[in-house]
Design brief:
This protein is of the alpha/beta class. The strands form three sheets. Strands 2-3-4-1-5-6 form a six-stranded mixed β-sheet. Helix 7 crosses helix 9 and helix 9 runs antiparallel to helix 10. The chain is elongated, with a radius of gyration of 26 Å.
Length: 334
């Protein structure tokens, strides 16, 4: 068994904090692992049967392309370079373990441009962890979205439109946000305040529900949303902070929340603001839309003031710069 981490230091930290402690605390292991340098080191354990578990750094090419393995674990693959995964997976090519080979990827979130993670997820049965409502006892899919969507889709709700949402100086009232967070059931529309007991009860009755009926039977995948295991109030505060940062043109906080708190796939274009901007010059503009009426002539060519029009949107409006796909430089006049 080979267990891959992005760096050697991450592997050593895991060995100190978890792997080594587990090995020393399990009597079934302490009684059979020999006390010699070949059988037990910080990064390696060998059983009398000959089976060994080794912690490796994925950024070392030799570690990715060495002898075949029966089991491969990859920790936080969203942070791996895309070319590492095919090399690691090739360690199954030997006929030695062809019938019992297993490869496991653990990740808290993936970028839409990460080809390996996205491909594996799309090929899998996509088992989503559903929770069970204590009131109606029906399953629901955990969500964390905008308040406008919660009423029909269910999810964690916090009072973003209440006057207490912000302090007098305009900053977020984190205590109010934390206290107002609750879960809205999409089936019976009951609401539940967070507590460890409520969350545990919802998860205890939960199930993994496959979402892909056309899955490749060789690929099995599980997804657990942060709502299943993290305090909803803390998630609400982080989500509100990320929305404030997005309003200032910064998507980095929202990316971090989507990946590390919700364990969902990140695609920046799904989270661009699509609100109607204030009119600048002659015509209004909607982010991500085509050029507004009046911006081009009858031949679909930018008018002579098109460059100035765009400049005003960027400097005087709230349009981020640059926005992919908004325009091509070749389309603009000198």
């Amino acid at each position: 068994t080979y267990w891959y981490f992005k760096s050697e230091q991450q592997g050593k930290d895991f060995a100190d904090e978890k792997f080594g402690r587990l090995r020393e605390a399990a009597p079934v292991l302490t009684g059979i692992i020999a006390e010699d340098a070949q059988a037990k080191t910080k990064m390696r354990t060998r059983l009398p049967s000959g089976h060994h578990t080794t912690l490796l750094s994925a950024n070392v090419e030799l570690n990715r392309s060495s002898r075949s393995a029966q089991e491969i674990f990859c920790d936080e693959t969203w942070d791996f370079e895309a070319e590492w995964m095919p090399q690691i997976s090739n360690r199954r090519s030997s006929a030695s373990y062809a019938w019992r080979y297993r490869e496991i990827h653990a990740t808290t979130g993936a970028a839409a441009e990460h080809p390996v993670n996205v491909r594996l997820w799309k090929n899998s049965d996509q088992r989503e962890r559903f929770l069970r409502c204590p009131t109606c006892e029906k399953l629901f899919r955990p969500r964390f979205g905008s308040p406008d969507d919660i009423a029909k889709l269910g999810g964690v709700l916090f009072d973003s439109k209440a006057k207490e949402y912000r302090r007098e100086d305009g900053t977020l009232n984190e205590s109010f946000i934390r206290e107002s967070a609750r879960y809205h059931c999409p089936n019976c529309h009951s609401e539940h305040k967070w507590s460890p007991a409520v969350q545990d009860a919802m998860d205890a009755g939960g199930e993994y529900v496959p979402q892909n009926p056309q899955a490749d039977p060789r690929f099995i995948a599980w997804h657990v949303h942060g709502v299943c295991c993290k305090p909803w109030g803390e998630l609400a505060v982080k989500f509100a902070q990320a929305l404030d940062a997005r309003a200032r043109g910064d998507l980095s906080l929202l990316e971090d929340v989507i990946k590390t708190q919700f364990a969902e796939q990140w695609n920046p274009f799904d989270h661009q603001r699509a609100e109607r901007l204030k009119p600048v010059g002659r015509v209004p503009y909607t982010m991500g839309a085509d050029w507004p009426e009046g911006g081009k002539d009858a031949n679909d060519v930018l008018k002579s003031d098109g460059g100035q029009f765009l400049r005003e949107l960027v400097t005087d409006g709230c349009l981020q710069w640059p926005i992919d796909g908004l325009f091509k430089l070749s389309e603009l006049p000198e």
